[in-house]
């Protein structure tokens, strides 16, 4: 399979792009960039738990949006941008510790919109959340 990335994109670049952002504050790490996917993880710790000791659902959404947004941006031609239009998430199972790892894959890569699906799993390999993000593609000015 040929790579979908239209801009230079690798794990080191993806991780550097999180500097001084919510991504870094929450401890999100990018683990792998494949030909048509991006994988990252978030720790379940004092930064990311809600008051009842579970991974905050909003943090799962931040992981999903981070992965989907990176995917959309780097799969667009040079000069193009990407912003989120809509995101949803179904929380399937809770996580109390360890890591939650997500993988984003494109469902649709179009000129004006993209849709990405993100599946997240706990350390036991159990599905914790599934999310879908629609991105608006911004043409160069």
Automatic annotation (TrEMBL):
InterPro entries: HotDog_dom_sf, PAAI_dom, Thioestr_dom
UniProt superkingdom: Bacteria
Residue span, Thioesterase domain: 52-129
The keyword Hydrolase belongs to this UniProt entry's keyword annotation: yes
Keyword Hydrolase: yes
One Gene Ontology cellular component: cytosol
One example GO MF annotation: 1,4-dihydroxy-2-naphthoyl-CoA thioesterase activity
Keywords on record: Hydrolase
Family: Belongs to the thioesterase PaaI family.
Protein name: Hotdog fold thioesterase
Species this chain originates from: Diaphorobacter ruginosibacter
Lineage of producing organism: Bacteria, Pseudomonadati, Pseudomonadota, Betaproteobacteria, Burkholderiales
């Amino acid at each position: 399979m040929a790579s979908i990335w239209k801009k230079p994109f690798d794990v080191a670049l993806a991780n550097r792009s999180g500097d001084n952002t919510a991504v870094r504050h929450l401890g999100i790490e990018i683990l792998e960039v494949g030909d048509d996917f991006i994988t990252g993880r978030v720790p379940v710790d004092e930064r990311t738990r809600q008051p009842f000791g579970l991974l905050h659902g909003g943090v799962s959404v931040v992981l999903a949006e981070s992965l989907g947004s990176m995917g959309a941006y780097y799969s667009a031609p040079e000069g193009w941008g990407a912003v989120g239009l809509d995101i949803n998430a179904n929380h399937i199972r809770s996580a109390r510790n360890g890591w939650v790892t997500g993988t984003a894959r494109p469902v649709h890569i179009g000129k004006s919109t993209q849709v990405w699906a993100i599946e997240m799993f706990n350390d036991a390999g159990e599905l914790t959340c599934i999310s879908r993000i629609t991105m608006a593609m911004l043409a160069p000015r």
